[in-house]
Amino acid sequence: MSADRPRSSAAAPSRVQPARRIALDVIMAVRESDAYANLLLPVRLERARLSEADAALATELTYGTLRLRGYYDRVIELAAARSADKIDPPILDVLRLACHQLLSLRVAQHAAVDEAVSLAKTVGSNSATGFVNGVLRTITRTPAEVWRERVLAATTSEDDRLSVEFSHPQWVVRAFRQALAAEHREGELVELLTADNVPPRVSLTALPGFSTVAELDAHASPFSPVGATLDSGDPMKLAPVRSGTARVQDEGSQLAALALTRARPVTEGERWLDLCAGPGGKAALLAAEALKGGATLVANELVPARAQLVRNALAVFDAPPEVWESDGTSIGETHPGQFDRILLDAPCTGLGALRRRPEARWRKQPRDVADLAELQSRLLQSAIDALAPGGILAYVTCSPHLGETRVAIQSATRRSGGTVELINTQQVLASVVREPLDLPVAPHVQLWPHRHGTDAMFIQLLGKAGQSRLSANPSE
């Protein structure tokens, strides 16, 4: 299949629809260079100047293929009578893209097959082109529902069945089950896996003091008092979004920031820190809330490129908050006890955002949890050290994995020796949200896509023992 010399992608025939070409390019970049589809695809669409319909098709092809990759691989293996790892990766990408059209979309079979063959010519050999044609013709001879029955019949366990049916790696299925079981709601696993495969509606934040939900021409969000949701359409067509006074931001992220800013009234002169601020969405909301209450915010981001994204996100402010490029694990040493409120949106597996970043489910491995847990622990200790007496820390992850949530908090509080204590985060958010959140009784908040329509954000507020520096020294 790879004996002939692959042809250059620059020789792509004009007959290939631009939407399919762009989708394949993004899918390949995700696989080859760990590109982020949500960052790369908008750039490719803008450059191509596609019609609204073609841009929508490219978006569905890209995210749909990435989302259901695991299931499509099982179909391809049955149709090709060989393991997916024995197929040249670019050709496998072409087959996955075609499978999405043949099995999940109402695309004419001949068009999907013909254009897949044309795409195969740009990334593979002549023999690979024939292989693609043969596999896809085999797939078209059997209805989609029959393929589903065949694939599920070939699974070897309940976890394998759920993994294939809902296109999540088995270790993710197990992690989700454990997280739900900790709430005594393991019966919701199928609902969660199903929700992960439904593209989310566009969620917006109206920055307090800069814009209002009413100005967004959208539905008010059910929970966030500064949030709105769009049923459809391009958010950039809204003037507040174009000007930066409103942002595209998941409602769960909004609640994470508001839990910190509205845990108690803001005292003028407070100093706030966003410890891991990139790419800047939560930092912008924090900055707006700080400005309203007379506090000042410092945003920190170690990676220079991400730090620049933070600066861009904060450019709407007349006097933008200072942006540091420091190692977050050392700020507790260099700036001990200096901040009254700290947001630690910790680096994590991102398993809570699989609706928006479907490729993340294939990018992470179980061993990543242990590596990230060590970093999360160091960042937590640094944040605790940087927190002023009487201060509040919000520990946030976009992951429901117990190792990144409850276990991380338990370890940090145990190590602190009574320096920090849990704040009832559910009680705080109950005074913030528009509608009650469906939550089991706990000191933390764990949001879920299937239950709340948000990313699976974990939020735990921590308070540091001692008297606030501002109440102790009102002249400062």
What report would you give on this structure?
- The protein has 476 residues and is α/β, with parallel strands linked by helices.
- It has three domains: 9-153, NusB-like (N-utilizing Substance Protein B Homolog, Chain A), CATH 1.10.940.10; 158-196, no CATH class; 251-472, 3-Layer(aba) Sandwich (Rossmann fold), CATH 3.40.50.150.
- Helix content is 49%, strand content 12%.
- It has 22 helices and twelve strands.
- The protein has helices at residues 18-33, 37-48, 52-67, 69-80, 89-104, 109-123, 126-140, 144-153, 158-165, 170-181, 189-196, 239-243, 251-261, 281-293, 304-314, 331-334, 360-363, 366-386, 406-416, 425-430, 449-452, 469-472; strands at 202-206, 219-220, 227-230, 246-248, 271-274, 296-300, 322-324, 339-345, 387-397, 420-423, 445-446, 458-464.
- The strands form two sheets. Strands 5, 6, 7, 8, 9, 10, 11 and 12 form an eight-stranded mixed sheet that branches. Strands 2-3-1-4 form a four-stranded antiparallel sheet.
- β2 and β3 (227-230) form a beta hairpin.
- α4 packs across α8.
- The chain is globular, with a radius of gyration of 24 Å.
Write a short abstract of this structure.
49% of the residues lie in helices and 12% in strands. It is an alpha/beta fold and 476 residues long. The protein has three domains: 145 residues, Orthogonal Bundle (N-utilizing Substance Protein B Homolog, Chain A); 39 residues, no CATH class; 222 residues, 3-Layer(aba) Sandwich (Rossmann fold).
Write the SSE topology:
Layout: H1 18-33, H2 37-48, H3 52-67, H4 69-80, H5 89-104, H6 109-123, H7 126-140, H8 144-153, H9 158-165, H10 170-181, H11 189-196, E1 202-206, E2 219-220, E3 227-230, H12 239-243, E4 246-248, H13 251-261, E5 271-274, H14 281-293, E6 296-300, H15 304-314, E7 322-324, H16 331-334, E8 339-345, H17 360-363, H18 366-386, E9 387-397, H19 406-416, E10 420-423, H20 425-430, E11 445-446, H21 449-452, E12 458-464, H22 469-472
Parallel strand pairs: 5-6, 5-8, 6-7, 8-9
Antiparallel strand pairs: 1-3, 1-4, 2-3, 9-12, 10-12, 11-12
Helix pairs in contact: 1-2, 1-3, 1-5, 3-5, 4-5, 4-7, 4-8, 5-6, 5-7, 6-7, 9-10, 13-14, 18-19
